[in-house]
Specification:
single chain; 141 residues; alpha+beta; 5-stranded antiparallel sheet; 3-stranded mixed sheet; 22% helix; elongated
């Protein structure tokens, strides 16, 4: 049994990322903006300092740029060898899911009364990886 869902995310939906942080000197909440202020994604968490807020905003901006689409997949028979950052292709699924190169961003292995399962969270690969894959296909011809 395999259960999955896919959601598409527009890379252009957010123009930037805004992260809130607490300034203990002023006892005020401040924010860091990475990118443009037209339509920024606002992070929910309030970070303890400016550096942590900047790092979180940068990480989220990279994720937004990378994640054109996401896919969650639950394997009824768990696979302990599957880990984050592994590349995945699932040709047995219909297009466009089966034609897409995915990268695993999160794995969760569970042992329950039903047995051992593995839940995967995947995103489409970065553009850099997509170009490398298309280059490989052209050289294989």
């Amino acid at each position: 049994m395999i259960t999955c869902w896919r959601s598409s995310a527009s890379r252009d939906a957010y123009s930037g990322v805004r992260a809130q942080w607490h300034d203990p000197n002023d006892a005020k909440e401040k924010s860091e903006l990475l990118g443009e202020d037209d339509n920024p994604k606002r992070l929910r968490h309030t970070y303890p300092n400016q550096e942590a807020a900047e790092q979180a905003a940068k990480a989220e901006m990279n994720r937004v740029k990378r994640g054109k689409a996401t896919l969650q997949f639950t394997l009824a028979l768990g696979r302990p060898d599957i880990t984050p950052m592994m590349g995945v292709r699932i040709p047995s699924l219909k297009a466009p899911i089966g034609d897409t190169d995915w990268i695993i961003v999160k794995t969760m292995h569970s042992v329950t009364a039903q047995g051992f399962t593995t839940q995967l969270e995947m995103e489409t690969r970065k553009v850099k990886y997509e170009r490398e894959a298309s280059d490989r296909k052209e050289t294989d011809k």
